[in-house]
Structure formats: structure tokens, C-alpha cells
Design goal:
This protein is α+β, with helices and mostly antiparallel strands. 22% of the residues lie in helices and 29% in strands. It has 3 helices and 6 strands. Strands 1, 2, 3, 4, 5 and 6 form a 6-stranded mixed sheet that branches. It is globular. Pfam families: DUF6482.
């Protein structure tokens, strides 16, 4: 899902939450949840958007309405071996989007 679609779906109320997923401690990617599915947020070329920090994520997402926003950490074992089909992400921390 690209940023334009994320914005449109957020305004329509389709996005349940946005996660800022920390990978390897200093790499962050954004994902949006609609229902039971998670969608990586991509740029116009189809590459997953990487952000540097919570502040950078807020800047990227500034056009969105206030939706639940969580900072989550991937489980180290899954980072090393690949994630299973089931979501195994550590407990997230809710942070304000705006």
C-alpha cells in the first residue's frame, strides 16, 4: 500500500492501526493493519518505506488523521530466521501520531 492509498483509506476509516516496526534496532518500517491483514507502506516505486525515527515517521504520516499508532519491535529470533506465517512481534507501545 503506498502513502496515497494509506491516506485515502485512513480518511475513509478503513485503517485500524499503523505500526512502526523496529528492525535490527535502528531500521524502522511502517505497516498498516486493515482487519486481520498487515500491509507494508511503500513508496511510489513499490519499495518499502524506511524511516529513521519516530519523529521521521510522524513527518511521513502527517497528512493522515489520528489513527492508533504503535512502536513495535520484531522478535530477534524471527529477524534472524524469518517470520512465521503467524505474527510474532513483541508487545507494541502506543504513541501519539500527531
Amino acid at each position: 500500500m503506498n502513502l496515497q492509498e494509506l491516506t485515502s483509506r485512513s480518511v475513509a476509516g478503513d485503517i485500524d492501526e499503523i505500526n512502526l516496526v523496529s528492525l535490527e534496532g535502528d531500521i524502522y518500517v511502517l505497516e498498516a493493519r486493515m482487519g486481520a491483514r498487515f500491509y507494508p507502506v511503500q513508496d511510489e516505486a513499490g519499495h518499502v518505506i524506511s524511516v529513521r525515527s519516530v519523529a521521521h515517521a510522524r513527518e511521513v504520516l502527517k497528512a493522515l488523521p489520528n489513527v492508533p499508532f504503535h512502536l513495535v519491535h520484531a522478535v530477534v529470533h524471527d529477524e534472524m530466521c524469518g517470520m512465521d506465517d503467524e505474527r510474532d512481534i513483541g508487545a507494541g507501545v502506543t504513541i501519539p501520531l500527531h
